[in-house]
C-alpha cells in the first residue's frame, strides 16, 4: 500500500451506503408519493451457500440516465445498458444487502433479498448427566449439538428413533452469521427401547428459493441399554393347572427381563427349586409359586394345582338292557376347583346330551336313555370341559367307557319275504326268511295244519298250499309272517280268423289271463318290440283282453304278444308275465317305386336313357311295359331314345291287384348365340346374348347364364314351351377370352326331381383402350439437381398399345422409358395408343432445391446474442411433411408443413463459445405418390464463427498476491476469447502496461487490473497487492553488530596487554601507539556502525 493513501473498511462502506439510501428514501417521501421503480430483478430473493457464486440480472425497458448495482461485494458501476448483472463468484459477506438503482426522472432502487447459509460442521447426540444402562420408566435427557450453522432461524433439529420421527426443535434467534446451537429431548425409555438407535438431524429449511431437498446433516446413532423388571409369561404358566391322577404335568415358567432373570419355585414352607420347569402330580401342594428375579426387581406368580377325577355308571341296574325300556346313567366329577363349562354324554362318537354347569364342586350328572336294538354293544361315557386361565383356556377330562348289552325281539326282513309270491307253472320259487334279534332267533315254516319245516329257506311250486307261515323266535319274543302263493297263467290268439291277413282289413286279437290272485297293474300288447296298446286293470280275476288291428304291408311276418304287469307285496313290488308270440302273414297290392321311375324323362338327342320299373308286393309282382297299341315288353328295364313313343307304361301285377305308371318321354335341345353382332366386342359397350330352349315338355325352374364358372344372371320360368331367353352384357377388359353359356334347370317327377341341360360355350374377344399404370408413373416426380431420374410408362390394353413421350411442342420419344433432369421441360406426357383408343398421362417435373442462410447478418456471431437462420425450399410441388434443423448430428428443431409452395422456414439460435465452427443445415421430408412415399432433401452445411468476450484464467491470476519487500513477484494474465484478446495492465490512474506478465514489488499500487480485450468485449480482473515485511535484514544487522562488538573487545584487550608489557619494562613508543589507534579507526568506522544500527532499529516494527 502506498503511503498517504486513504482506505475505507468494508463495514464503513456499508454504513455509508445505508446512510445514503436512508437519506434518499426520506427525501423521496417528503417530495410526495414515488412511482413504482421501473426495474425488474430476475429473482426477488436468492439463497446462496457461503463462499458460493451468485448472479442476478436487473433490467429495464425504459430509457434512463444510468443504472447500476450497489453492494459491498460485486458492485456494478453505473451504465446506460438496459440489463446489468450483479455477480459474485465467492460470496462471503453475511449481511450483504445489494440493490439495483436507476436514474430516470429521479433515482429509485429495488433491493435484492439475500440469504447466505452454511451447513453445520458437525452434529452430535449425547445423554446429559448419565452413563451406563437406563432403568425402565425413569426420565433422561438427550442433547443434540450443532456446530457452526447459519442462519439459525431457519434451522430445525429433528429427533429420530430408528427411522421414526419423534420430535422437532426450532430456533427463534435471528442471526445471519454462524452459531453453535444445542437442542434437548426428554425421554422415558421402556423395555422396547433396549438397544434402540436414537439420532438427531440438523436441517436448514430455506424456502422455495433454497436447495431442494433442504440441506441436512445427521448425527451418529446413539444406542443405550434399558434395564427392566421381569415379566412372567402368563400364557405359558396359567393360574390354575388341572392334574389328572396318574398323569403328571410339567409347568414352564418363562420370564422376560434385563438383565436376564433367574427362575425359582417355592413349594410349601421351605422347599425351593431353582429351575425354569417343575413337574407336578397329585402329591404336589395345592399352591406353588414361580419367582423371577433380576437387579431391576422381582416378580412372583401363584399357580393353583387342581386334582381332577371323573367316572360313569348305571343307576339301579345291572346286566343286559331290554330294547325300548328306560334306564339312567350318572357321571360323577370329584374335586373340581375351576368352572365346568359343560358336561357331554357320548354314545360311540355321537353327542347325546349336553349340560352346562358354571359352579365347580363335587358334582353328579344324570341322563335317561332308552336303548334300541342298534345300541347293542354301544359304549357310553361322559366328558367335562373345564375353563381355566392358561395357554389353553379350556381343558377336558373324560370318564372310562361303559359298554351295554341290549336284547331285542326278532324282526323278519319283509324285503326278502313278500306277502304274495307268484308261481308260474313248471317254475318253482325259493322263499328266504331272515330275522334280526338278540339273542339270535330260530326260523321255522308252517304249511297246513301239522307240517312244520325248521329252515331259513322253503321251495314252493303249483302244489304248495295257498298260505304258508314263517316263524322267528328268541327269549324276548316271537314274530310270524304269512305268505300267499299265487299260481299264474296267460295266452294270446286271433278271434274268428285263420290264415294270412289282407293289408288294410280289420282283425281281432285276444289275451287270456287265468287265476290272477293279485292286482293287474296294466296289460300291454306288443308287435315285434314296439308297444301298441296299453290297458290298466286293478281287479284280479280270470280275465280276457281284446284288441283290434289293421295290418299293412310292413306287418308281414310281424309277431304279436301280450304282457301283464302284476302288483304284489314283496322284495320286488311288481312282476310281469308274457304270452307266447303270434306271427302273422300279410298280402298286399304292388306299389311301383316312383323315385326310380319319374313321370317325365328328358332325352337328349343321341343319348339313349334306360328306364327301371321296380315294384313291391306280396306275393311278388310281375313287370311289363306297354309301348303304343300292341307292343308289350316283359322286363323290369326299358331303353328309350328320340324314336321312342311320347308315352310308355309300366304294369306291375300280383294276386291282390294291378298297378300302372305312365312315363312321358321329352326330347330336349338348347343353344346360345349373340344378338345382332359378330366379331370382337369393345370393352364398356352393351351387347345381347340369347339362350334358345326347344321342345321343353316340363317346367323350367330357372335359366342361368355363366361366364367362366361364375353365375351371371338367373331367370325363373315355370311354363314349358319353345323359349328364348336374352341377357344384356357389358364386357370389360377382364372379359377378353371369357366363355359364356346358359343352363336350364328342369323340374320333373322322378328319382332325381331336377335335371339340368347346358348349351355349348360361346368365347368372346374384348378390345380395350390402354390404361397407364399410375403406380409406376406418378403425376409429380421430384428431380434433385445433378441426379437424373428414369420415368417408366407401362400400359395395359387390347390390342397391345404403343408408348411415346411428348416433351414440349415438337419433341416425341418412342420408348417405354424416359430419362429426365433439371433441363427437362416442366411438363412431359406419356401417350399409350391402340385401335380401341388413346390415353395420355401428364407428369410434372419438379426441380427441387433447398438452401440455408442467416437472416440480416453476415460475418461472425457474438456468443449469447440471438440470430436467425432460414431454410429456403424452392419449387416444391408436393407436400412437405416436416422440416428439421441440424447442428452437427443433433436434431434441433422440427416443423411440420403440409402445403407445397416456395417456402421459407426460420429458426432462432443463440450460439455460445462451444458453437464456434459448428455446422448447421436443414432437411425437408417430402410426401409424394410413388413407390417410395417419402423422400428427403438436405441443404449444404452452414459453418458459423462465434466471437465471444474474453475470460481471464482466475487459477493463474489470484485476486490477492503477497509481495515481500525486496522480492519482486511476476503476475501472469492469460485469457480465452475469439478473436484472441490483447492483454494490458492498469497501475494507478494513467499507467498502462501492454504485456501478458507484470512484475510487482513494494512500490506497486495496492490495486492493479488485468484487462483482456477483443472485438466481442472487455474483461477486467482486479489483483490486490499485499506488501509483506522482510525481517531478514534486521536479523543480519544484529548478527553484524555482535560480531563487530566482539572484534572491538579483542582489539582492546590486545592493545592493553601490549601496552601493559611495555610499561612494566619502562619502554613506551608513542609512534607505535598512534599506529594502533589508526588501525583501530580504520577497522571499525563507528559513525557508520551507529547509523546502520539506528536505521535497523527504526525499521523494526
Radius of gyration equals 68 Å
Globally, the shape reads flat
How many strands in all? Answer: 95
Strand content range:
over 45%
Content-based structural category:
mainly beta
Low-confidence stretches: 1-34, 1064-1101
| Whole-number mean pLDDT | 81
Q: Provide a count of the helices.
A: 4
Distance N to C terminus: 16 Å
Q: How helix-rich are the residues, as a percent range?
A: under 10%
Provide tags for this entry.
disordered C terminus, 7-stranded mixed sheet, disordered N terminus, flat, membrane, signal, single chain, Ig-like_dom, 8% helix, transmembrane, 4 helices, mainly beta, 95 strands, 1101 residues
Summarize the model shown.
With 1101 residues, the chain is mainly beta. Helices cover 8% and strands 52% of the residues.
What does this protein look like?
By secondary structure, the chain is mainly beta. It has 4 helices and 95 strands. Strands 20, 23, 24, 26, 27, 29 and 32 form a 7-stranded mixed beta sheet that branches. Strands 37, 40, 41, 43, 44, 46 and 49 form a 7-stranded mixed beta sheet that branches. Strands 54, 57, 58, 60, 61, 63 and 66 form a 7-stranded mixed beta sheet that branches. β50 (559-567) and β51 form a beta hairpin. α2 (1032-1065) runs antiparallel to α4 (1086-1099). The chain is flat, with a radius of gyration of 68 Å. Mean pLDDT is 81; it is low at 1-34 and 1064-1101.
